[in-house]
Design a protein that fits this description.
This protein is mainly beta. The chain is built from 1 helix and 30 strands. A 5-stranded mixed β-sheet has the order 1-25-24-23-22. β16 and β17 form a beta hairpin. The longest helix has 4 residues. The chain is globular. The termini are far apart.
Length: 393
C-alpha cells in the first residue's frame, strides 16, 4: 500500500505550555476585533473548573490568556445558537462505569464583553451527554447521551433557556464487536443536515450511523426509514461532517482509527457507504483512537485527528465522486488532539489537546490543504471543544 507523506512538524512539538492555568476573573479574554473562543473541558480533566474563554485575533494569528467564563462541572461539549446570543453546555458528570444522568446548561452571552449569564440547567435524560447541537431555526436543542445510548430533543425558549424534553429514543443492543466500555449503544453526535430535515447520529457502540427526521415546529425527532447504515464491525463511528455540496458525508471512526465516506441522499436522509481509509500508518501499532473530523469551507480537504498517534490525517476530496485521496499526516504539537476546527475566517485550524492542556494554531493553505504550525498556542485545562463568537460586538 502507498506510504503517506508524514510531516514531522517538530516546531509544534516544542511549543511551550504555561506552568499554571489562568485563574478566574484575571481579565477579559476578548478585545476589540477578532473572536472570543469558548472551550469545553474533557470530563477526565482534573484541574478545570468549567467553561474557559480566550481571545483569538486572526489578523495577527495570536491568542489571549484563557480565563474561566463559567464555573460548571464537566462541560464536555458546547454549542452556540445561530445568532451567537446563547451558549449551551453538555455537562458530562459521568465516568465510564457509572450511570449518573448528565445535564444541559444554558447561558446568555453578553455581546460586548463575552461574559456568560447562567439561564437554567436541565437533565439530559441519560448518562454522559457527549454532544449537543442547535438546529438551524434556533428552535431545537439536540442531545446525544454517550453512556446512556440515547438521543433527546428539547425546545429552546425565547429567552434562550431550555424547556422540557419532547423526544427521547433509546438505542437498542444491536450487533457489537467490542466487549469493553464501547459495547452497547454509545451515541456520540447529533449532526443536523444542511436543509434541517434530518439528524445523523453516529453510534460508536453499535457501529451504525442512525438517521432521524427533524420537525422544528414540534421540536421533535422521529426515526427515519431506513433508520441506519451499518459500518464494518469494530469501526466505532464517532463524529460526522457533511460536504458543502450536500451529496456526501464523512465519519471519523474511533475504534478502527479510520475515515468512512458516504453518499448522502438529501431527499431521504440516508447514507450509502463509498469507502473506508485508515487515518494512521499501517505500521503504527501503539494505542490510538480517532477523535474529530473537519472540512475546509470550500469542501476540498478533509481532516481527522488521532489520539495516541497525535496527528491529523489530511485527505483531498473528489467533489464529484466523494472519494478521498490521502495527502499527509501532520504532527499536532501536543498530546491527545481531541478536537480540531477551522476558525471563522477559514485561514487557520485550531487543535485542542486534552492531555497537554493546550490549543495549538496552524495556518491553512487552501490550495494544497497543508497545515503549517504558527508557533502560537494557549494553555487551558483539558480542552475538548471550541466555539467562536465575534469579540466586542
Amino acid at each position: 500500500m502507498k506510504t503517506y507523506r508524514y510531516s514531522l512538524l517538530l516546531a509544534t512539538a516544542l511549543l511551550p505550555v504555561a506552568a499554571a492555568f489562568a485563574q478566574p476573573n484575571s481579565g477579559k479574554p476578548n478585545a476589540a476585533g477578532g473572536y472570543t473562543v469558548y472551550s469545553g473541558a474533557f470530563e477526565g480533566g482534573k484541574q478545570g473548573k468549567g467553561v474557559y474563554s480566550f481571545h483569538f485575533d486572526p489578523a495577527t494569528g495570536t491568542f489571549g490568556t484563557a480565563t474561566l467564563a463559567a464555573e460548571t462541572d464537566s462541560p464536555e461539549f458546547l454549542a452556540l445558537d445561530q445568532t451567537h446570543r446563547f451558549l449551551y453546555v453538555a455537562n458530562y458528570i459521568n465516568n465510564y462505569l457509572g450511570e449518573r444522568a448528565g445535564s444541559i446548561s444554558s447561558y446568555a452571552i453578553d455581546a460586548a464583553t463575552g461574559d456568560l449569564k447562567f439561564l437554567n440547567r436541565i437533565s439530559s435524560r441519560g448518562a454522559g451527554p457527549a454532544h449537543i447541537a442547535v438546529d438551524h431555526t434556533n428552535k431545537v436543542l439536540l442531545v446525544a447521551n454517550y453512556q446512556g445510548g440515547s438521543v433527546v430533543s428539547y425546545p429552546i425558549n425565547p429567552d434562550g433557556s431550555v424547556g422540557e424534553s419532547v423526544s427521547f429514543y433509546q438505542h437498542g443492543a444491536g450487533s457489537v464487536a467490542s466487549t469493553d466500555r464501547r459495547s452497547g449503544p454509545r451515541t456520540h453526535e447529533m449532526a443536523v443536515s444542511p436543509d434541517n430535515r434530518f439528524v445523523l447520529v453516529p453510534d460508536l457502540g453499535l457501529d451504525r450511523v442512525m438517521s432521524y427526521r427533524l420537525d422544528p415546529a414540534k421540536t421533535a425527532l422521529a426515526p427515519n426509514d431506513p433508520q441506519f447504515v451499518t459500518l464494518k464491525p469494530g469501526s466505532g463511528p464517532r463524529h460526522i461532517v457533511f460536504h458543502p455540496n450536500g451529496r456526501f458525508a464523512y465519519s471519523v471512526n474511533e475504534t478502527s482509527s479510520s475515515v468512512t465516506g458516504f453518499a448522502y441522499d438529501a431527499q431521504r436522509g440516508i447514507l450509502t457507504m463509498i469507502e473506508t481509509l485508515p487515518a494512521i500508518p499501517e505500521d503504527f501499532t501503539a494505542f490510538n483512537q480517532g477523535a474529530e473530523i473537519a472540512m475546509d469551507p470550500a469542501g476540498k480537504f478533509l481532516y481527522a485527528s488521532n489520539r495516541g498517534h497525535d496527528s491529523i490525517a489530511v485527505f483531498a476530496i473528489d467533489a464529484a465522486k466523494g472519494m478521498l485521496k490521502p495527502l499527509e499526516r501532520v504532527v499536532t504539537g501536543g498530546k491527545t488532539p481531541r478536537y480540531i476546527t477551522f476558525d471563522p475566517t477559514g485561514r487557520y485550524m485550531l487543535v485542542a489537546h486534552q492531555n497537554s492542556d493546550n490549543v495549538v494554531l496552524f495556518r491553512f493553505d487552501n490550495r494544497t490543504g497543508h497545515l503549517t504550525p504558527t508557533g502560537a498556542s494557549v494553555s487551558l485545562p483539558s480542552p475538548a471543544c471550541l466555539v467562536f463568537i465575534e469579540a466586542g460586538k
